[in-house]
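Subject: for your reference before the review

Hello V.,

The reviewers asked for a structural picture of the protein, and I figured it would be easier to keep everything in one thread rather than splitting it across files. Below is the amino acid sequence we used in the manuscript, unchanged from the supplementary table.
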Amino acid sequence: MANRRESMTEPIPFTERHYSVKELAQMWRLSSAAIRRMFLNEPGVFRFGKQNQGHRRDYVTLRIPVSVAERVYRRCLRPNLVPSLRNEKHGGP
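And here is what came back from the structure prediction:
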């Protein structure tokens, strides 16, 4: 467990490739909204802009390092550890 925590707090190299939400959505064949939900609070993701100002829309740009995308992808390969995005929209199994 200590290794997992250490790897989540390691600094991300400046030269590491960073994906936009749109790029990951295309690569993983998911909606941009699904990618945003998956990565919004993920450690290591860069956030630019203003978040939730009451009733106004959020204006936040995400840049997702390759290492973070790989970590989330590996986690999603173990579906019993990740809540299903499929059930959110329809409210059932």
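For the response letter, the relevant points are probably these. Strands lie at 18-20, 46-50, 59-65. Confidence is low (pLDDT under 50) at residues 1-6, 87-93.

Happy to draft the paragraph if you're swamped.

O.
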